Amino acid sequence: MQCNVVASWHGFAYETVSSDLAMDLTREPKEPRPLSLHQRLASRLFWIIDEINFFGDYSHHVATSDHAGDVLRRVYMLPPDRVHVILNGVDNGFFRPDPPRGAIFRRNFGVPENASLVFGLAGRLVKDKGHPLMFQALIQILKDRNNSGVFVLVAGDGPWGKRYRELGPNILVLGPLERERLAGFYNALDVFVNPTLRAQGLDHTLLEAMASGKPVMATGFASITGSVIVGEEVGYTFSPTVESLKVSLSRVLAEGKGVFDKKGEKARERAAKLFTSAKMAAAYERLFLCLSPRHRKNGGLDFCRYPLPSDQ
Fold it and tell me: Which of 180-194, 227-241, 281-295 is least confident?
């Protein structure tokens, strides 16, 4: 029996398989594959089958990325008119370019004025967010004396925070930042990095950095490359391996700030077009107007049809 319910999916079993594969790539060459991974992958397949069977009981589904919407239609075989892609959004009035604020943030946390480049990380400092990859890549990058002016600001908390601190004075672990300070954090960066090993959803940190006018670098999962980093003009992607991440970081170091400014402007334009909280809220409002028999047709307007005359 179909329920008159709208389900919003920020991750489902099919996407967790990609996450498991990415996590396995972080193993050391001689490290045995854990038995738990074999068990987990086997159970995932049955989980996907179960989801395919019961997802059809919901009347409508909201996907937060283009890739997730495609999976719901093609793999979960849901009718296209019952799958709606509504991208996550952030407050682009709060997260916006503000160079003076960024300069103050750098000064407050001890980043020297002559720093050649500042990377940033934010979120939970745990394994599934890709911090083992970033840790190993930074060890190799910072060994090069030519990179002595490279600094990394790490906003967040977790077991990898202590390890980052052990890399030396160029890695500044700031701990969790309240929202007011996050705006300064993004503006203090040259490039924001999200090395996540989780394929699900659409991470708000990427959207906040883009709204702040910063180029972004992230793992090349389909949800990210399909909706966020759709081309080199807004940022960089890498495979979930230390070597691939190191190559991307080295490329950034070679490009210089003039390139970052251009990519950051393109990133900001894309965020303003697609990833604002106002657009997200309007999309949800329109969806529920579409589903409401009382409002579905208002003055001849069918809210289930897109675009409306007012969208032109």
Answer: 281-295
Task: Tell me which amino acid residue 127 is.
Answer: K
- 58 three-state secondary structure: strand
In this model, does residue 96 exceed pLDDT 80? Answer: yes
Look up tokens 């996050």; give the residue.
182
In whole angstroms, what is the distance from residue 177 CA to residue 85 CA? Answer: 30
Name the CATH superfamily housing domain 99-272.
Glycogen Phosphorylase B; (3.40.50.2000)
Query: What is the helix (H) or strand (E) element at residue 60, kind and residue range?
Result: strand 58-63
pLDDT per residue as tens digits for the range 105-114: 999 999 999 9
Helices (H), the chain: 13-24, 35-55, 66-74, 99-108, 131-143, 160-165, 179-187, 204-211, 222-227, 242-255, 257-274, 277-291
Note the maximum CA span of the chain.
Answer: 68
Q: Facing residues of 7 across strands?
A: 61
pLDDT of 309 over the 80 cut: no
pTM: 0.90
Would you state the pLDDT for residue 297? 55
Asked if residue 307 has a cis previous peptide bond (ω within 30° of 0), the answer is yes
Taking the domains of the chain in order of start, what are their residue ranges? 3-86, 99-272, 284-312
Cα separation values, 292 from 4, 295, 298, Å: 11, 5, 11
Residue written as token pair 């991208």: 87
